[in-house]
Amino acid sequence: MTSEKLPEVWLRGPLPGVSSLLMPAAHCLMQCREEIVTAADLTTNQLWAMPGGAASAGFHLRHIVGSLDRLLTYARAAQLDRHQLAYMRAEGEPGEPPDLAPTLVSSTQAAIDSAVQVLRSTSDADLMLARSVGRAALPSTVLGLLFHCAEHTHRHTGQLITTAKIVRSRTP
Question: Which end of the chain is least crowded, N or C, by CB within 10 Å?
């Protein structure tokens, strides 16, 4: 059975080692992992194009990597370091030489795999622990941050897929 004929990840059953309380977030992340491969064949120009001023597909891939790292840092009750802040500022830049689609897809999948591993290693007893987010120390919990990892990744995956369709349609 090819992956195109498989049901969505959440309909395939539990993921080994993931708490039932975190299973929806893990399913969501794994669905995103499968869907981002649609961007792997984008040319460099397509990857960094900003149709109508929208964020590029490259930005969405980099942003998924960076936002997962930042959210998981907060979930560990840590603060962002200078490398994370520098990465955040550069998420929309192609780089020199420009990053390529297969490389970004691979690094994004690795970041998702790492996030799912964090879900596996998180105890149910820790889910309601208070956490603060950002310089303003906005209130959240471990569960809130882990859920946001999934829904934020899903949002940018959808934007990535849409952007990829648009830039492909504009290429002769």
Answer: C
CA distance 66 to 87: 7
Radius of gyration of the chain (CA): 17
Whole-model pTM?
A: 0.94
Query: pLDDT tens-digit profile of 117-127?
Result: 999 999 999 99
Query: CA-CA distance, 141 to 163, in Å (whole number)?
Result: 32
Residues in contact with 118: Cβ distance below 8 Å, sequence separation at least 6, in sequence order: 72, 75, 146
User: Nearest CA to 74 among 117, 155, 138?
Assistant: 138
CB 26 within 8 A of CB 18: yes
Q: Containing H/E element for 79?
A: none
Distance CA 66, CA 64 (A): 6
Among 1.10.150.120, 1.20.120.450, 2.70.98.10, 3.50.50.60, what is the CATH number of 16-169? 1.20.120.450
Tell me the two tokens of residue 93: 């830049």
